[in-house]
Amino acid sequence: MRYRLYIIYGLLLFSLPTFASWQRNIINHERNTYKGGFQNWMVEQADNQWMYFANTNGLLEFDGVNWNLYPIKNKIVRSVEIAGKRIYVGGSSEFGYFEANSIGLPTYHSLSDKLSNWWGEVWSIYTIDNQTYFLDDGNILIYNNSKDTIEKIATNYKIDCSTLINNKVYLGTTDGIFFLNHRNKIELLAPSEVLKGKKIVELLPYDNKILVVTARSGLYLLDNSWCENIHSIADNFIAKNQLFCASLAESQVALGSVQNGVFLFDLKKKDYHEEFNLANGLSNNTVLSSTFDRNNNLWLGLDKGISYIDLQSPIRPMFAINSPIGTGYCSALFNNELYLGTNQGLYKMDKNGGYQLIKDSEGQIWSLTIYDNTLFCGGDNGITVISAQSTYKINLTGIWEIHPLASNPNRMIAGAYSGFRILEKKNGIWQFSHNVANFFNSSRGFIEDEINNTFWVVNMGTSIQRITLNSTQDSLINRKEYNLKDIIIGENTTFRKIDNNLVICALDGIYQYSRISDNFDRYAQLEKLLDGSKYYEYLKVDELKNIWYVSDKSLKLLPYGKDGYNQNTFNIGLANDLISGYENVTLLDSVSAIVAVDKAFVKVDLSSDHNRNTRLNIAIRKLVATSNDSTLFYGNSSEPITIPYSLNSINIHFAATEYSKNEDILYSYRLKEIDDKWSTPAPKTIKEYTNLIEGEYTFEVKAIIKGDSKAGETTYIKFKILSPWYRSMWAWIVYGLFLLLLSYIIYKRTIGKQKKIINEKGELLIAQSKQYEEERMLKDKKIYELQNENLKTKLHYKTQELSGYILNIVRKNEMLEDVRKNVMSISKSLDENKQPNIIKQKVVRLITQINNNIDHDKDFEVFQSNFNLIHKDLFTLLDNKYPHLTRNDKILCAYLKMNLTSKEIAPLLNISIRGVEVSRYRLRKKMNLDKDLNLSDFLHNLK
Fold first, then answer.
1. Is 427 exposed, middle or buried (0-12, 13-18, 19+ CB in 10 A)?
2. For residue 121, which of 102, 141, 98 has the smallest C-alpha distance?
């Protein structure tokens, strides 16, 4: 394979015309999917079934779900060898190995650094015991694992390819085939001299011999003593196309070419061959590498991308890419020819795989029925009738399906979008006869009862009707509707007959008609054979009594054998391809069936070799902390997993290694310490847990194929969430020491506090004494203040009395004025000589007035007493110092003591202001006061 770098990739691609032979399921992985380089130079599979690719950007890893790229120096990887826990790689002037680090992440270790003055492309790697062989264009580099040394052996030939057979390295060159002997010397394999001058692209071990694959010169089988050219069905392909690589699985050979994809054939089956290229599903025609995996499916490393060809799947699609004939709805094998009804029309497929549209059948086709050596095709645009002699059309639009009438072999009944149509055979030609009167319901899925001219119809999924026609089938004579109380029927439900039982599928299970009760009862016996009480979208028994059904959107088959229905159910799948409500299966023979799907049709192989449900290999890929997106565990780690408490929110990634039905894989999981039950199966491959508390955990996961009740093996991972630092062992030790220290401090403080309490009590007694004295003084002060307040109150009261006395004096003066006026009136009356009686009355009135005011003379005594209280015994002082003062003099002193002016004093004394001034003057004289001394000030200061 050493000539690879010199190939011109601009060669013209060969394209085949479109044809409709049964293809293989091909899954193409483009560069934007696996995030690597375009070219993939080698393909290998590990013991855990993961795939590894030597990619131009590094080592590619694929587990069925996740792609991972591991780079090396100089980027390009051209070869890969998996040996134990190491993955050896070789590239452009670089080779070494990947080995898992402490968390399981593959880490690259370069070995080429141990060599000086070496460069080249490492195309092959082999491991024998403790030694690893790296082969470049002309050298063999032997790495001794135990001694960690490298020995370089020059071959002096350009190595085009190589292989390892029985622990012996063989080299393919244009000078023949050589091998490395036990002395690490290059020897020519003598019989290979006939291969001189031929470009050898692959050496394959086959039947204890070497199968030699050349680029242009065909195949050879080589032994230690002979070499012969093998002629096979592949000769023509090799002659037209330049081979680039080859791989072998038992007797099956895959030849990868530069121009036209891959050619697959079998050395023991001379007529078998298949071709895969751009025309039927490959994404690129240049095949750089190939290998058969452990399930004998084919992997191709392409010049642009990676392809997976599912060779073991029992399902083979009609078209690998898109369907040019539309969506499939029905099929029938008639006169050894396969007829296919689609949404575009009716097609006929010949034995060579070609197909053609039947004339005038264009439009939606719903059903195909074979009766009277004639094929009836019901569709949107009418009924197409095909016999051995002719093909013609009955112009009746909107026909669901056509069935023969049990009562009249020359008549058929067609269920239409609205009502029934009767067909009749006249002169060997089937033609429209008449409509059934009084019935206009849609009749899809109808079926004839055991009683002639009686039919069962599901009315748009809401109710079931049993109708009876008259003997001429032109009118309805009886109709009975069955209202199903607790039974809910789907929209596209149809009737079936199983073991002569009338059966219908409801949303909660299967029901059969009972003639005894004239009602529908649960068909528990059939449910037990199938998947239990659930909704079955499709149910059919074929000619061999095999039961076909759809549950959970997956097509399944319960085979009928010599012991009845005792075999395991075969889960065919097709969950994403079936047309819901219009599923259709046609049995071709005992080992194959045709199924209508979105991309036309698929052929299902029913042989026992394919009727085995393989167990899924599931792995936990990695464990990632969500807080910082760091990988805590990778799939290859054997170390215990401990996680800091700060990273206690995690994502767990898992994957099942299923390369052909990846979209049909469901996962169920649980964290045993938290979840008692398994989760509901779902396609999600990541589970997140947040804020896990410290402790040990076991995460379990298992994979299930959609529609399959059996789960694959369970895998698990154990990990431990560490305690937070404040709950760790060292933290508890620190807490203990802290408590001891705290206890000591508390003890010391307690003793100190007791001393302090004694001192404080002594100080407290002193303070209490002081406080008591202060409180006593405060109380005395309070009492004094209260006494002062009381004195003020009394003083206020005395002031009010004094004011009253003053007012009384004013009142008396007013009274004296009145007396004066009355006396003047009496005097006047005397002068006028008035009658004595009148004068006497006035005198009596005057005496009465004087008597009424005599009592108020005591007011002076009260005034004198109160004034002494207020003004510190003024009158007493005056009496003691100036005894010769008259009462009026004392009153004048009192008024002056009160700071009254002469104007205010005049009315009180009933004299004029001038009289007040004269009285003041006289008072000064009596008291012998100096004329410059202010009388009021003197009185204020008098003591």
1. exposed
2. 141
Q: What's the rounded Cα separation, in Å, for the pair 313 and 572?
A: 9
Residue carrying structure tokens 């032109």: 474
What is the amino acid identity at position 256? G
Residue whose C-alpha is closest to residue 2's, from 185, 164, 138: 138
Burial (CB < 10 A; 0-12, 13-18, 19+), residue 474, is: middle
- With a CB cutoff of 8 Å and minimum separation 6, the contacts of 687 are 651, 652, 654, 669, 699, 701
Four-point Cα dihedral 714, 715, 720, 721, nearest 10: -80
Could you tell me the sign of the dihedral formed by the alpha carbons of 824, 826, 830, 835, in that order? positive
- pLDDT for 282 equals 94
Q: Is 55 helix (H, G, I), strand (E, B) or coil?
A: strand
The CA-atom distances, in angstroms, between 92 and each of 247, 494, 617, 871 are 24, 65, 34, 130
CA distances from residue 766 to 224, 777, 778 in whole angstroms, order as listed: 123, 17, 18
Give the C-alpha separation, 645 to 774, whole Å: 65
Q: Taking the alpha carbons of 744, 747, 750, 751 in that order, is the dihedral positive or negative?
A: negative
Diameter over CA atoms, the chain = 201
**Cβ atoms 802, 867 nearer than 8 A:** yes
Contacts of 757 (CB under 8 A, 6+ apart): none
566 SS3 class? coil
Q: HSE of 607 in the Cβ direction (CA atoms, 13 Å)?
A: 8
Does residue 135 contact residue 149 with C-beta atoms inside 8 Å?
no
- Measure Cα distances from 39 to 55, 68, 617, 805 in Å: 6, 16, 28, 134
Any idea of the CA torsion for 874, 875, 878, 879, to the nearest 10 degrees? -150
- The letter for the amino acid at 443 is S
The strand pair at 641-643 and 715-721 is best described as parallel
Alpha helices in 855-934 (DSSP H): 859-870, 874-881, 887-897, 902-909, 913-927
The three-point CA angle 133-164-263 to 5° equals 120
Q: For the whole model, what pTM was predicted?
A: 0.74
* Cα gap 365→474, rounded to integer Å: 26
Cα(417)–Cα(380) distance, integer angstroms: 9
Measured between its terminal Cα atoms, the distance across the chain in Å is 146
Q: Give backbone dihedrals phi and psi of 305, rounded to 5 degrees, phi first.
A: 110, -170
Spatial separation of the C-alpha atoms in residues 892 and 902, rounded to whole Å: 10
Structure confidence at residue 818 (pLDDT): 72
* Cα(451)–Cα(455) distance, integer angstroms: 8
Residue 917, both tokens = 């001034």
Query: With contact defined as beta carbons under 8 Å apart, do 432 and 391 qualify?
Result: no
142 has which bridge partners?
Answer: 133, 151
Locate 679 and state its tokens.
Answer: 């989760």
Which residue from 332, 396, 335, 276 is spatially nearest to 26, judged by alpha carbons? 276
Measured in whole angstroms, the distance separating CA 772 from the mean position of its chain's CA atoms is 78
Rounded to a whole number of angstroms, the CA Rg of the chain reads 62
Mean pLDDT by 10 residues, the chain (943 residues): 35 32 90 94 94 96 94 93 95 94 91 90 95 95 93 94 94 95 92 93 94 95 91 94 95 96 94 92 94 95 95 90 92 92 93 85 94 94 92 93 93 93 93 92 89 84 83 91 75 79 87 88 89 89 91 90 82 89 91 93 79 69 90 77 90 90 87 90 92 92 80 85 86 90 88 84 83 83 81 65 60 68 74 67 70 54 64 77 84 82 80 85 84 80 78
Q: In what order do the strands lie in the sheet containing 374-379?
A: 365-371, 374-379, 382-387, 391-394
Q: Give the whole-angstrom CA distance, residue 538 versus residue 614.
A: 25
How far is it, in rounded angstroms, from Cα 527 to Cα 536?
Answer: 10
Identify the pLDDT of residue 612.
47
From CA 428, how far away is CA 437, in angstroms rounded? 26
